[in-house]
Structure formats: C-alpha cells, structure tokens
Amino acid sequence: MSDAFIGEIRTFAGNYIPEDQFAWLRCNGQSIAVVQYQQLYALIGTTYGGDGVHTFALPNLNGTVPIGQGTSTENVAYPIGSGGGSETVTLVQAQCPAHTHTLNASSSLASTNTPTPQVSFAAVASTDLLYVDTAKPIQPGPVPFSAQSVSLVGNGASHANIMPSTAITYMIATQGYFPDFQ
Questions:
Q1: How many C-beta atoms lie closer than 10 Å to residue 92's C-beta?
Q2: In the structure, how many helices (H) and strands (E) does the chain have?
Q3: Which of 11, 20, 27, 132 is the most exposed place for a label (fewest CB within 10 A)?
Q4: DSSP character for 17?
Q5: What is the pLDDT of residues 152-175, one digit of tens each?
Q6: CB–CB of 173/8 below 8 Å?
Q7: What is 40-85 written as a DSSP string?
Q8: In terms of Cα–Cα distance, which of 171, 121, 178, 109 is closest to 146?
Q9: If DSSP codes are grouped into helix, strand and coil, which group holds residue 94?
Q10: Among 42, 3, 47, which Cα is nearest to 27's?
Q11: What is the pLDDT of residues 62-78, one digit of tens each?
C-alpha cells in the first residue's frame, strides 16, 4: 500500500486487514482508547461516538454505504458523521401511486353470497366479478359494500430497501502522515 494519511479510509477485498508500515483498523464502529490513538482522535474526535475522555469510536461502515458530507442536490444536509436511510421500509397509503380497481358485474349464477377481499358479493367464473341477483327485490337508495370487499389490502409488512451491493472491508489508517489543515 502507498503512504496513508491518518484518518484515511480505504477498501480492501480481503476479509482481514493487511499488514503495512501504517496501522489500520476496521471501520466497524469500535470504541478505541484516546491515549493509544491520539493523532486519530485529534482528527475525528467523537464524531462517531465515545466519551471524548477515555474513548472515541471509529466510523461504522458495516452494512452501510458512505456518502459525501455536505448538502445534497435535494438540499438535504449531511454533516460529517451523520447517517440516514433504512434497510427496510413499510409503505403507507400516501406513498402508493394513484390507481383504480375495476369492479365488474355478471349475471352468471353465483357459488357464494359471502363477501371476501377477493369477492364482492359472489363467486362466479372469475373472482373479480360482482354478481347481482335480479330475482330478489332491489333495495331503494345506496347500499354500501361490505367493508371486506372494499377495504385496504396488505398487511403492513416492510420490504427490503437495499440497492445492489457487494460487501467489502473498510479500514481506517491510525498511523501515517498527519494531514495539514487548509
């Protein structure tokens, strides 16, 4: 490896930290001693955790994707050390695109008169058909559908919200050149 700046983060395709003239630690959020890594502490402080007296924490890049600090094109601020996102998401009705459902009718003979989430009033050749029994008297005025027939569907379960990715080792330099401030 080439020379490193203290606090520099690199990726490595192996499942270990390579030995080098500069010391490296995994970016796994571990808490380390201020007294043992004073120069690194001088650079990152308690940005990623720790009490700032005895300990400070390394960035935790396990299962996360690093993003550039600053303000996004959508005007969202991402200060250094901040996080965001979620591995799973549960959509709410307001997040679903507007759409319609077709309600069909049939004069075919029904096999049931019990509504279900898939059957409005009766089951015929297709489960998306509404059966109207014309032999019975028609009720005057509007008659509401069964709540089971027109209610919301879904069970509120979350779904995965992870972009295609490949796990790799992130490591941070604890020794090397102390970067100049500009």
A1: 8
A2: 2, 11
A3: 11
A4: P
A5: 666 778 888 888 889 999 999 999
A6: yes
A7: HHHHHTTTT---SSSEEE--B-TT-----SEE-TTS-EE-TT----
A8: 121
A9: helix
A10: 47
A11: 999 999 999 999 999 99
The one-letter amino acid at 22: F
Place of tokens 């203290």: 6
44: tokens are: 């990152």
- Which residue has 């005057």 as its token pair? 140
Residues making up the chain, counted from first to last: 182
- Give the single-character DSSP code of 38: H
Please give the Cα distance from 25 to 15 (Å, whole number).
Answer: 12
- The encoded tokens of residue 138 equal 């028609």
How confident is residue 14, by pLDDT bands cut at 50, 70 and 90? very high
Per-residue burial over 10-40, b if 16 or more Cβ lie within 10 Å, else e, is eeeeeeeeeeeebbbebbeeeebebeebeeb
User: Tokens representing 29?
Assistant: 């959020």
Cβ-Cβ contacts under 8 Å for 102 (sequence gap 6 or more): 128
Domains of the chain and CATH, by start? 1-63+167-182 (3.90.1340), 87-138+145-155 (no CATH)
